Amino acid sequence: MKKVLVTGGAGFIGSNLVDVLIGDNIEVIIIDNLSTGKIENVNKDAVFLKHDLCSIDHSKFVDILDGVDTVFHLAALARVQPSIDNPIPYNDANVNATLNVLHAAQKACVKRVVYSASSSCYGNTSRIPQKESDPVNPLSPYGLQKYIGEQYCKLFSEIYNLDTVSLRYFNVYGERMSLSGAYCLVTGIFARQMQEGKPLTITNDGNQKRDFTYVGDVVTANILAARYSMKLNGESFNIGNGRNVSINEVADMFGGEKIYGETRLEPFETLADNSKAKNTLSWEPKGNLSKWIKHYKIQLGI
């Protein structure tokens, strides 16, 4: 890789990826509309362009991609419940924008698109751990939309000879994760509630389990996928830690009082079978949620 585009490069995962790419002396262009990303996350050595991928002029987009060999497509409207409340803008951001990225990348002769997919495509399955070959059964517009993105990637590899790869993330946590708003994950919610001296709110009974994956491991997976020497042809890979814990256990890692609130339809358990990513991409997750929370609490002064 010499020159890359990172969509969503001002966001949580995207900005962490950009920092590593810049550290490897790779030329980076960022496209972000700052709807959820933050300008303070943007690496000063990257070229930042504020555009909305749903409405960007196609010829202009192709020009931006001139000389780019790899596109990391991380831009999205994430989270399940907001997509249920507002499915149309989510479809624009997660499906239409992805199609625009793939179309422009194909026209610009980009070598590979690395697509940020989601484990939410599996839905509520009794198959544990989840394997890439398992049936998909998304429970939300978000889960469906991210899976449609995977299918578009595969089609563009088959029809247009644009090499693509989809990385199905499992519950990413780490530096720069949101602590507020609709896009906040449970780790961010608990951190904010601890800061505010409030009890930790838990949906359902808290026994639901999640495979929490460190953002640094996700960044590594993206780079390994981009550098893989052979064509990937739209293949999907689980990017998960391979171990899961209950929400009650996460709350205990933070400490403090717990209260139980609303009931939501959500998968009871997520757990990645990450053997495909390990064997094909030589990826090895290293994050440890418990150790990270201890360090993070010190950083936040809680």
Outline the secondary-structure elements.
Layout: E1 3-7, H1 12-23, E2 27-31, E3 47-49, H2 58-64, E4 70-73, H3 80-85, H4 87-107, E5 112-118, H5 141-160, E6 163-169, E7 172-173, H6 186-195, E8 200-202, E9 209-210, E10 213-214, H7 215-227, E11 235-239, E12 245-246, H8 247-254, E13 258-260, H9 275-281, H10 289-300
Helix pairs in contact: 1-7, 2-4, 4-5, 6-8
Task: Please tell me about this protein's structure.
- The mean pLDDT is 94.
- This protein starts with a strand and ends with a helix.
- It has helices at 12-23, 58-64, 80-85, 87-107, 141-160, 186-195, 215-227, 247-254, 275-281, 289-300, and strands spanning 3-7, 27-31, 47-49, 70-73, 112-118, 163-169, 172-173, 200-202, 209-210, 213-214, 235-239, 245-246, 258-260.
- It has two domains: 3-172 and 213-242 and 273-280, 3-Layer(aba) Sandwich (Rossmann fold); 178-210 and 244-271 and 288-300, UDP-galactose 4-epimerase, domain 1 (Alpha-Beta Complex).
- The chain contains ten helices and 13 strands.
- Helix content is 38%, strand content 17%.
- The chain has a seven-stranded parallel sheet, sandwiched between helices.
- It has 302 residues and is of the alpha/beta class.
